[in-house]
Amino acid sequence: MTSAQASAAFSKLIAQRDDSDQFPLDRACLLICAVYDSSIEIDRYVAQLDAFAGRAKASAAASDPYSLMGSVLRTLFVTGQFRGNEKSYDEAGNSLLASVIDRRLGIPITLSIVLMEVSRRVGLPLEGVGLPGHFVVRFPDPTSRLYIDPFHGGTILDVSQCVALVERLYRGRLTWRDDYLAPVSHRAIVKRVLLNLKNALSQAKDYPAALSAIQLRMTLDPNDATELRDRGILFARLRRYDRAIEDLEAYLRESPDAGDSQHIRNTVQYLRQERNF
Known about the structure:
Helix 3 (42-59) crosses helix 4 (65-79), helix 3 packs across helix 6 (108-121) and helix 11 (241-254) packs antiparallel against helix 12 (261-276). This protein has helices at 3-15, 25-36, 42-59, 65-79, 97-103, 108-121, 159-170, 186-203, 207-220, 225-237, 241-254, 261-276; strands at residues 83-84, 105-106, 127-129, 136-138, 147-149, 155-157, 183-184. The termini are far apart. The strands form two sheets. It has a five-stranded antiparallel sheet. A two-stranded parallel sheet has the order 1-2. It is an alpha+beta fold. 60% of the residues lie in helices and 6% in strands.
């Protein structure tokens, strides 16, 4: 599958939306991988997730949700040795599901996707929770108010521990809100994956690859003016001044009162001068 074919398949997949907007999360994330690597065999990775689920179901002591959940966690984080990539957190590979499955290393959101997809296969539909600066999964019994932290080996957290986790990350700069624990849609999860990927690639100065992440994000949300701005900035770094000016001016039309609007106007003026040299 070529990059263009993978991108088209991604667009088609996310367009097949039901009322809850829950398109297949595993395939959406694997199609992102195929945009970057044409050798990715999506069905092979789907089969690996199937295999993890099969092992978890076979080793569960009982069929109740708690026994199944415990077996899934052991299969992934003890036997499977999935773990958070604390040493190289900002690597782009941490945001690519195929790489996470291959290396058993990832960041909170991609490890959560592995957990959600394996759990779904054993009959436990989990929901992702996008805490500020971290991502966890809500335990299958919503009355328990328990959450799972895949980045730290599948640790079980209660609400107070979620609050403490966010407070540690932000060191008092953020006021806790209970809606931080609200579940998020698959669309929101994939957008967050792509945001992490875009940031990692931009930090690595791989601007063409970062542009691909932006294009995929804009497929999910064509009206996101922030992506217009970021795409324009990347075009400018690639010295594609006409495209940069076009995107940045479109951003200003969409968000004339944005906090960075004057900076973007100055940038457009500078780019016009550079283009004319």
